[in-house]
C-alpha cells in the first residue's frame, strides 16, 4: 500500500453490510485519505474484481474532466470510484457516464428532496451550481486487461468554497441547510446504478433510460453553447438520444453532439 493511503476499516465494514448481495460494491476499498480513488482502482486493475468500489474521506489529488483538479476536503463529500469489467463492447463506455449521472441524480433527489438536475455530460447541478462531477475512464493493463472506472465526487457538507469556485460550486448543505449520512448516499447510488446498468445492458444502449434522463436534463429547452475546436456553435438543447449524444437544434437542423464543453444559459454564471 502506498504511504499516502490510510485504510478506513470502520466505513468499509458499514458499506459491505449495506451492499451485501449487490453486484456493485461486492468488494469495498475504504480509505481515510488517498491520492485519488480512480487511481487506486487503476493501479490495481489487474487483480480487482468487477464491481469493486473505492471510497475515501479525503482525496489529495482528485481530478475532473480534461485534467482539472477536484476539491476533495476531508469529511465533506462523497469521493468514490467504481470498477466495471463486464461491458461487452468498449465503444459503449461513454454511455456509462449517463448511467452514473442518472443514478446520482436519483439518489440525491431521493435523500434530500432537492431539485438536483443533470448537466450533460457529467455534472449534477442544484440551484444553478455544480454539486457533483463524474469522471469515466477506460483503462488497459500491460497484459491487456480492460476496465472502466467511474469516479464520482459529490459536495455534501461544505459551508463555503474558495473564491474561484464560489460562483460555480455548491453543496447539499448550502442548498438545503440539512446534514446527510454520506454512507447512505453511497449505498443509494450503488443500488440505483445497479438497476440502471442492468437496464442499459438489456437494451444495448440508453433507450430504457432516455426518457427519465431527459426529464432531469438541465440542458433541455435552454440556450446552450457548444465549445469545440472544430465546430463551435449555439443552439437549443433538446435531450439525449439512445447513444447518449446531446441533441441540439441550431439553425433549423438538429445536431448530435458526442463530446465537448457545453455552457448552459443560467448555469455556472453563463448568461
Supply the key terms.
8-stranded mixed beta sheet, 25% helix, alpha+beta, single chain, BirA Bifunctional Protein, domain 2, globular, 6 helices, SH3 type barrels, 271 residues
What report would you give on this structure?
- A hairpin with a 3-residue loop joins strand 5 and strand 6 (123-126).
- The protein contains six helices and 13 strands.
- It has two domains: 6-214, Bira Bifunctional Protein, Domain 2 (BirA Bifunctional Protein, domain 2, 2-Layer Sandwich); 220-264, Roll (SH3 type barrels), CATH 2.30.30.100.
- It is 25% helix and 30% strand.
- Helix 3 (95-112) packs across helix 5 (182-203).
- The strands form two sheets. Strands 1-2-3-4-8-7-6-5 form an eight-stranded mixed sheet, with helices on both faces. The protein has a five-stranded antiparallel sheet with strand order 12-11-10-9-13.
Question: What is the second-level CATH architecture of the largest domain?
Answer: 2-Layer Sandwich
Radius of gyration: 18 Å
In angstroms, what separates the terminal alpha carbons? 47 Å
- Give a short account of the largest sheet: 8 strands, mixed
Strand and helix order:
EHEHEEHEEEEHHHEEEEE
Biggest β-sheet: strands ordered side by side in the sheet: 1-2-3-4-8-7-6-5
Structural class: alpha+beta
Low-confidence stretches: none
> Averaging pLDDT over every residue, what do you get?
90
In the CATH hierarchy, what is the superfamily of the largest domain? Bira Bifunctional Protein, Domain 2
So what's the overall shape?
A: globular
- What percent of residues are in strands? 25-35%
How large is the count of helical segments?
6
Stated plainly, the CATH topology of the largest domain is called BirA Bifunctional Protein, domain 2
Tell me how many strands there are. Answer: 13
Task: Quickly name the level 1 CATH class of the largest domain.
Answer: Alpha Beta
Oligomer: single chain
Amino acid at each position: 500500500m502506498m504511504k499516502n493511503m490510510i485504510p478506513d476499516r470502520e466505513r468499509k465494514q458499514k458499506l459491505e453490510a449495506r451492499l451485501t448481495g449487490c453486484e456493485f460494491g461486492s468488494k469495498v476499498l475504504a480509505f481515510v485519505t488517498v491520492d485519488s480513488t480512480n487511481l487506486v482502482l487503476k493501479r490495481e486493475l489487474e487483480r480487482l474484481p468487477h464491481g469493486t468500489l473505492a471510497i475515501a474521506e479525503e482525496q489529495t489529488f482528485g481530478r475532473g474532466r480534461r485534467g482539472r483538479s477536484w476539491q476533495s476536503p476531508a469529511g465533506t463529500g462523497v469521493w468514490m470510484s467504481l470498477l466495471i469489467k463486464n461491458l461487452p463492447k468498449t465503444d459503449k463506455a461513454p454511455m456509462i457516464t449517463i448511467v452514473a449521472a442518472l443514478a446520482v441524480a436519483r439518489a440525491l433527489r431521493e435523500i434530500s428532496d432537492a431539485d438536483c438536475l443533470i448537466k450533460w455530460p457529467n455534472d449534477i447541478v442544484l440551484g444553478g451550481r455544480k454539486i457533483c462531477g463524474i469522471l469515466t475512464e477506460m483503462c488497459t493493463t500491460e497484459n491487456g486487461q480492460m476496465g472502466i472506472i467511474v469516479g464520482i465526487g459529490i459536495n455534501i457538507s461544505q459551508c463555503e468554497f474558495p473564491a474561484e469556485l464560489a460562483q460555480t460550486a455548491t453543496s447539499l448543505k448550502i442548498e438545503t441547510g440539512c446534514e446527510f449520512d454520506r454512507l447512505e448516499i453511497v449505498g443509494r447510488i450503488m443500488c440505483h446504478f445497479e438497476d440502471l446498468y442492468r437496464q442499459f445492458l438489456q437494451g444495448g444502449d440508453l433507450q430504457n433510460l432516455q426518457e427519465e434522463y431527459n426529464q432531469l436534463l438541465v440542458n433541455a429547452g435552454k440556450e446552450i453553447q457548444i465549445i469545440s475546436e472544430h465546430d463551435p456553435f449555439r443552439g437549443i438543447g433538446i435531450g439525449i438520444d439512445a447513444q447518449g449524444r446531446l441533441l441540439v437544434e441550431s439553425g433549423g437542423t438538429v445536431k448530435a453532439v458526442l463530446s465537448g464543453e457545453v455552457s448552459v444559459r443560467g448555469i455556472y454564471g453563463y448568461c
